[in-house]
C-alpha cells in the first residue's frame, strides 16, 4: 500500500483504515485532515501526516457508543489539529478523555 516517497492516494488510505474512499474525502472536506496536494491528473496525493490525522479520526469516531457530546468534542480536537493548533488540540483532548472516562 505504501507508495514511493511515502505518498498515498485515496484508495491506499481507504484500504489501510478499512473505510470507504468517500470517508477519506469527507474528512478532507470537513477539515479533519489537511487538504491533499494534487498531482498532474488532479488526483489527491496524501502523505504520512495525513495517515496520522486519519488515525486520530478513526480513534475518535471508531467507537460505537458515541453521542453528540462525544462527537462534538472529537470534532474540536480534529479541527485544532488540522489548523496546527497543538496546544488547543491538547486541551480539547483532555476534555474528550474526561467525557469518555
TrEMBL record:
Q: Write out the GO MF terms.
A: DNA binding
> Where in the numbering of this chain does the HTH merR-type domain appear?
7-48
- Check the record and name the InterPro entries matching this protein: DNA-bd_dom_put_sf (IPR009061), MerR-type_HTH_dom (IPR000551)
- SUPFAM superfamilies given in the database record: Putative DNA-binding domain
For this entry, list what GO says about its biological process.
Answer: regulation of DNA-templated transcription
Q: Mind telling me what this protein is named?
A: Predicted transcriptional regulators
Print the organism lineage: Bacteria, Bacillati, Bacillota, Clostridia, Peptostreptococcales
Amino acid at each position: 500500500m505504501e507508495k514511493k516517497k511515502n505518498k498515498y492516494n485515496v484508495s491506499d488510505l481507504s484500504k489501510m483504515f478499512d473505510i470507504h474512499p468517500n470517508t477519506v474525502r469527507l474528512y478532507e472536506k470537513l477539515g479533519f485532515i489537511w487538504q491533499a496536494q494534487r498531482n498532474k491528473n488532479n488526483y489527491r496525493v496524501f502523505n504520512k501526516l495525513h495517515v496520522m490525522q486519519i488515525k486520530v479520526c478513526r480513534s475518535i469516531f471508531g467507537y460505537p457508543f458515541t453521542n453528540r457530546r462525544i462527537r462534538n468534542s472529537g470534532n474540536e480536537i480534529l479541527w485544532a489539529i488540522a489548523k496546527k493548533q497543538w496546544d488547543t488540540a491538547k486541551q480539547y483532548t483532555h476534555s474528550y478523555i474526561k467525557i469518555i472516562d
